[in-house]
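Subject: Predicted fold for CDP-alcohol phosphatidyltransferase, 527 residues

User T.R. writes:
Posting the sequence so we have a shared reference for the thread.
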Amino acid sequence: MVLAALLLPNSLAALRPNRFTRIPAEAIVGAALVLVLPRRPRVVVAATAGTALGVLTLLNVLDMGFREYLGRGFNLVLDWSLLDDAQSYLKDSMGEATTVAATIGVVLLAVLLVVVTALATVRLANVLAANRHQATTATLITGTVWVTCSALGLQLAGVPVASDRAASAVVVQADRVRDTLRDEAAFAKEARADTFGATPPGQLLTDLRGKDVVFAFIESYGRSAIEDPVMSPGVTRTLDTRTEALRKAGYSARSGWLTSATYGGSSWLGHSTFLSGLWIDNQQRYRTVTSGDHLTLTKAFKKTGAWDTVGIMPGVQKRWPEAEFYGLDKVYNAFQLGYEGPKFSWSTMPDQYALEAFERLEHGKKRDRPLMSEVILTSSHQPWAPIPKLVDWEDLGDGSLFDAVEKAGRNPRDVITSKTASREEYGKSIEYSVTSLTQWLERYGTDDTVLVFLGDHQPIARVSGEKASRDVPVSIVAKDPKVLDRIAAWNWTEGLRPAADAPVWKMNAFRDRFLKAYGSTPHPTKD
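User M.O. replies:
I've generated the structure tokens; pasting them so everyone works from the same file.
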């Protein structure tokens, strides 16, 4: 057990037998240490080292989970709050009883792992001390072999024989903590400087005056949906079909790629990066920027005084103080859209219903000035089961008709446990979300409607692939040709499907490019 803990990698892809046929330097150093210590100090040192090794094993397991779902390792400073989100996701996907049982089981296993690892280390120390002569000889021989293998770079099955895996893992975790603490101060300074922070209201977005502008995020809509051989056929067919349908309705579209600040989850990091023009790739950065007054793209519309601003947030199920930061006059959460139908796993309501509610409550109303809206669509959120079906828009009502749709859908347990099923159903969910949004535009859009929609991040690594990019599609759709003429220099692809060689920008670059393209004059604020 101790040997396995010392050699355990921190990713599922590396979890292979050849990783456990190595010689750990930490075991040699530990053996040498306990051989020279008296009994009481030996037991204390062994118990402490075993406890630390157990904790390190837990961190390695967390790293595996985070890499599998979010494409990155676990951050000791920032990521504890995400465990609560994971529990909520599991509850929505698998049920409350399963979640409670799983939570209790995980906590007990974690405690047991640390305790047993500590006991195992103490037992090994006592065995070494009881056989001091043989242990000393073995330690000297093993240490010599380790040094020789390290010096010569000897490998077994493609992996170096000499290992310092545990020590390296500690260094990695320490570096993450150090870099996180340093980043906090540096980012706070960066967030106070803003290219458009002092721009007068009359010099913001002058070329979009009179337009109803909608910024829509499609959950987990990533590049893999368009390029992966399993998922792309249906998604690309949908994008091409909807491009043609919009063309017949008088709309044109241009599309490109943005590299998201997050991957597999933590959608709010993608939203805030896109709208703030700052690279927000962790929770600390998010808390820093949302507690300040940095100008977001949505707030720029409010600052002009020429638009009403609203947020449609079916994924928000609790207090959301960030509304002020984003400059939204009014926000509709999951309980304020009038939905009386079933949840679809994590998603509180189908995208089609959320868009119809948006039309009924805000977009379809007569008003004295145009509307700027931020719409978050959630039907493509994992576990992608059950997936809503499109119904006649006239029949949506309060959403009760979706009871039958939800009951006829696939069980999330059958999808979440299968990589192939997850990929297939993910693709179908993107088809549904894109179709819902573009049908809404086709049905309710006007000559003055401008739709900007994009994905917030790629799906989890087990769906998008181990080495998938962080790129997501982004499209601008409008009837007025002048709107798209303003971004001609961007060289985006015509239609809703960006070409493979279309421009790729970091997501935080969009805000400034958009503001400049539509008539905003930079007036920087400085730290």
